[in-house]
Amino acid sequence: MKLTDVELLDELKSRFEENAYSLKHLSELNLELMSLNRKLEESEKMKSNFLSNIRNEIVNPFASILGLATHIQACGPDRMDKVRQMAAMIHSEAFSLDFQLQNIFAAAELEAGESHLSCMNVDVSALLESVIESYRFELQKRSITVDLTCSCKGMEFKTDAGKLKLIILNLLDNGIKFSQMGGRVEIVSSCSQGILEVAIRDYGIGIEEKNLAFIFDRFKRINTDVNTLNGGYGLGLTVAKAMLEALEGTIEVHSKVGEGSQFIVRIPEAKAADEVEGFAADANEFMFDSDNEIF
């Protein structure tokens, strides 16, 4: 059937409109693909930086341990003071290495969905004191004091001791790392109505308000580096937050540049069904009622 001039013009107009819509849609898809490609490139760059930093964080403590051990072997019996000093440094480096690996393994388990709860009665006060003691050498070296106020002393709280300890380790590490020489870090802990609250405050460099939204992003780096807990690869806070989510807890951040930061975590007590038999003094030492064995 032959189209009239008017019908032909309408058909051409309709097809032009369809083509225009298709071109607009293709343009929008192209912009989305370009944006996705930029994000993938940024992700690859961050992962590359992550691997580079991880290598340094693992290799450096190993090199220090090996070097110090060599010096100890060369020391005679008349230099025991020097040996003790180097042994303390070895312990500090070994702790640093263990801490980095704990975060890496925890992140891998969380990524694979293989992180499970192992809740028991925890002596929160002993756990906090153990975490502070872990940093004794670093604190002495930088003349930083840690003030602990724990109103739940002598109380037991049902939770996963390992996850709780890693959360506190990361937050305290953050506070120490960004404190000035001779600075101070405060830890205040309380337990009320089945909720454990731990607040860690430092008086260091602080975090810019615009960066607060990014500090829990994995591998995310900000210009001031205040979100990176472990040598700058941005994993510590990510792990801490993920651990808190596994414990159905929350984290709150208050910070001001030049005045320091405060991280407040709140964790509900584990349900009886999640609990396993036993007692944890500090997440490393476990005691079982059946035979009073300690591991």
CATH top level of the largest domain is: Alpha Beta
- The CATH architecture of the largest domain comes to 2-Layer Sandwich
**What is the number of independent domains?**
2
Number of strands: 9
Using the CA coordinates, give the radius of gyration. 27 Å
The low-confidence runs, each spanning 5 or more residues with pLDDT under 50, are: 223-233, 285-295
Helix segment tally: 6
Q: Tell me the distance between the termini.
A: 92 Å
Work out the helicity level: 40-55%
Spatial ordering of strands, largest sheet: 2-4-5-7-6
Q: Tell me the CATH superfamily of the largest domain.
A: Histidine kinase-like ATPase, C-terminal domain
Q: Could you report the average pLDDT, rounded to the nearest whole number?
A: 82
Protein structure class: alpha+beta
Assess the beta-strand content as a share of residues. 15-25%
The main sheet comes to: 5 strands, mixed
Instruction: Note the overall shape.
Output: elongated
Helix-strand sequence:
HHEHHEEHEEHEEEE
CATH fold category name of the largest domain: Heat Shock Protein 90
Organism: Acetobacteroides hydrogenigenes
Pfam families: HATPase_c
Domain Histidine kinase: 53-271
Enzyme class: transferase
Question: How would you describe this structure to a colleague?
Answer:
The protein has helices at residues 5-74, 80-112, 124-134, 136-142, 161-177, 236-246; strands at 119-123, 145-150, 156-160, 184-192, 195-202, 250-256, 260-268, 275-280, 286-287. By secondary structure, the protein is an alpha+beta fold. A five-stranded mixed β-sheet has the order 2-4-5-7-6, covered by helices on one side. The chain has a four-stranded mixed β-sheet with strand order 3-1-8-9. α1 (5-74) runs antiparallel to α2 (80-112), α2 crosses α6 (236-246) and α5 (161-177) packs antiparallel against α6. Mean pLDDT is 82; it is low at 223-233 and 285-295.
